[in-house]
Design goal:
glycosidase, Hyaluronidase, 2 domains, alpha/beta, GH, 12% strand, 11 helices, TIM Barrel, 3-stranded parallel sheet
Length: 366
């Protein structure tokens, strides 16, 4: 139980400390994981917030039933939680209006039971409905930051694909639900390695199932997150450099260039390519028969080649355009009228393409 005003004063101090430039225009991510704004989602260790809320009601309300205490505690908690989260992000946007403000892990899909028999990856229906109830949060956000950080699956990579696919698809659904006339940009969190083994780096197939899947579904970019273990020793740093300079870096460059080619060909650089059929196994990958990716000794990559007519025809068959704000039409060549309703985001096409590269400069406010 804490004063909202005291919290906002601390948040204002943190914003000025961690993001000193008033002209900041990068990713501004609020890491808010101790409790969730919806009563029903505060399970397991987070249940203490429900218990404390009921205790507070019990002290102020005499001769009321347990059911009434539960009802009042839930209503009070959710009202206060909404105020804390909504006013915090509004403060961030007011202080640094060019920043892409959002909460880490929002929206969530709660499809974590990857070891369950017959795992489908789908978001439970009740969680989809709960996400719908958070319209106030999506309307307050400037970007969405879901996560496809995965554990190593002992069965097969198919579960990792399903896990990632539904999580990003749910975020893309939420991105269109706001009162704005454009879809919020979605930046997907991932890691170089697995959640339970950070220095066991993602396999090539799991890179496709996380990064590749996210790009094909319409993500604006990626945030590659890691803890201090990755840089705790020279040996670990060398392992990270080797992976980034080989499989990971090569794949990021592949997907980034393929996204640029598709945007240029289908959307006149005024939109992002998105799968026509969201579950289809079609990816934004360069055709190895048309392109060659060369690595330098310094770990940088150069792409040589150009798309063939067949490559471009396949892109047109498999992908469609999600136009950026201000543009309209199947190929995004039209200028949207003032009262139009299409569009993807409020920032430029050039920035979106840039953000398809690894986003390592995001700011976290805790």
């Amino acid at each position: 139980n804490i004063s909202l005003q005291v919290h906002l004063e601390k948040a204002d101090h943190d914003i000025n400390y961690y993001i000193p430039s008033e002209d900041f225009s990068g990713l501004a991510v609020i890491d808010w994981e101790y409790w969730r704004p919806q009563w029903a989602r505060n399970w397991n260790t987070k249940d203490i917030y429900r218990q404390k809320s009921k205790n507070l009601i019990s002290k102020t309300q005499r001769n009321v039933s347990a059911a009434d205490i539960e009802y009042l505690a839930k209503a009070t908690f959710e009202k206060s939680a909404k105020a804390f989260m909504k006013e915090t992000i509004e403060l961030g946007i007011k202080s640094r209006p060019k920043g892409l403000w959002g909460y880490y892990l929002y929206p969530d899909c709660y499809n974590y039971n990857v070891y369950a028999p017959n795992y489908t990856g789908s978001c439970p229906k009740e969680e989809v409905l709960r996400n719908n109830e958070l319209s106030w949060l999506w309307n307050s956000s400037a970007a969405l930051y879901p996560s496809v950080i995965v554990r190593k699956s002992p069965r097969c990579s198919e579960n990792i694909l399903r896990f990632s696919q539904f999580r990003v698809h749910e975020s893309m659904r939420i991105s269109t639900m706001t009162s704005r006339d454009y879809a919020l940009p979605v930046f997907v969190y991932t890691r170089l390695g697995y959640r339970d083994e950070p220095l066991l780096f993602l396999s090539k197939q799991d890179l496709i199932s996380t990064v590749g899947e996210s790009a094909a579904l319409g993500a604006a970019g990626f945030v590659v997150w890691g803890d201090m273990n990755l840089t705790s020793s020279k040996v670990n740093c060398t392992k990270v450099k080797r992976f980034v300079s080989s499989d990971f870096g090569r794949y990021i460059v592949n997907v980034s260039r393929a996204a640029e080619v598709c945007s240029h060909h289908l959307c006149r650089n005024n939109g992002r390519c998105v799968r026509k059929v969201w579950k289809a196994p079609h990816y934004l990958h360069l055709n190895p028969a048309s392109y060659h990716i060369e690595a330098s000794e310094g770990g940088e990559f150069t792409v040589k080649g150009e798309a063939s007519d067949t490559d471009l025809a396949l892109l047109a068959e498999r992908f469609s355009c999600h136009c950026y704000q201000g543009y309209d039409g199947a190929d995004c060549r039209g200028m949207k009228t003032a009262d139009g309703s299409s569009g993807v985001s409020s920032f430029s096409a050039s920035l979106i393409i840039l953000c398809l590269l690894v986003s390592a400069g995001s700011q976290h406010i805790q």
